[in-house]
Specification:
Layout: H1 2-19, H2 26-53, H3 55-67, H4 80-109, H5 121-154, H6 165-182, H7 185-194, H8 200-205, H9 207-221, H10 227-251, H11 253-265
Helix pairs in contact: 1-11, 2-4, 3-4, 4-5, 5-6, 7-10, 9-10
Length: 266
């Protein structure tokens, strides 16, 4: 009798947990999306204002890897210095505002999550910002200096270099933002698995394709043709993919349903 009562109580708890998910119409979803976009734009504007105050420090930070090899930026258009400061302020502002923007993203998806899943908000924000900064730091301190040395000092030593603001800023952002975004792989897998789009079985089954893609990316960003150096760039991304598989196993709906069924049957 006690076991039957316990089972009924757990079943009611599971039903109550499902009932807590609010139903929203299409217009309500669009209204909520618009609200979050407006709030994110406000935070981005505030971040831009803060970054603009420190724009000279940001520009110096960007030029530092080039200065270390004895080179400096030149410009060919009168608007180039202003464009660089605007671009730096926008990207820096986005990074400064990223925790607040990510919180708006979380608020948008939170109504579709169970109460116990909403406690992931702080780990989600910390992991997202931390992984991006980790990838950006990897690009700034490892990939970019190596690429500049190989391309300008080694291959370009017989020529007179003229590194323009426009070309260098595009090269800088492609490496820093590219690696920062690529390090978000576990977060992407988290959401894909959370909504049942991918499963840990699917990710593990296709790991050989993931390895191929990772090494293609590593070969593209690696400044040296040496295969051992290329492996240094590939290992962090492969590690993140494996972490993503573990995350997918943890949050996939099939595992949550199995836990619910087990709890209801006890």
């Amino acid at each position: 009798m006690v076991d039957a009562g316990e089972a009924i109580g757990k079943a009611r708890a599971a039903v109550a947990e499902r009932a807590e998910l609010p139903g929203m119409s299409l217009m309500e979803h669009l209204s909520e999306l618009r609200r979050r976009i407006v709030h994110s734009a406000i935070y981005l504007g505030l971040g831009f204002g803060i970054a603009w105050i420190f724009r000279n420090q940001f520009v110096g930070f960007i030029q530092a890897p080039l200065n270390r090899i004895g080179k400096s930026l030149v410009f060919t258009h009168p608007m180039d210095p202003l464009n660089l400061q605007l671009q730096v302020s926008l990207v820096g502002g986005a990074i400064v505002a990223s925790p607040f923007i990510l919180y708006q993203v979380w608020l948008f998806i939170a109504p579709g999550l169970y109460q116990k899943e909403r406690r992931f908000v702080i780990p989600f924000m910390a992991a997202t910002v931390g992984l991006f900064l980790g990838g950006a730091a990897f690009g700034y301190y490892w990939v970019l200096p190596g690429a500049l040395k190989i391309l300008i000092v080694d291959f370009g030593h017989n020529f007179t270099s003229m590194v323009t603001i426009e070309d260098y800023s595009s090269f800088f952002l492609s490496i820093i933002l590219g690696l920062g975004i690529s390090f978000e792989m576990p977060i992407l897998i988290f959401f894909l698995a959370l909504f049942g789009i991918v499963s840990p079985r699917f990710l593990w089954k296709n790991i050989r394709y993931a390895i191929l893609i990772v090494f293609i990316v590593a070969a593209f960003i690696c400044p040296s043709p040496d295969p051992w150096t290329m492996c240094i760039y590939a290992v962090p991304m492969l590690t993140l993919y494996l972490i993503g598989i573990a995350v997918a196993w943890w949050v996939h709906p099939s595992r949550r349903k199995a836990k619910e069924a087990k709890a209801a049957g006890q």
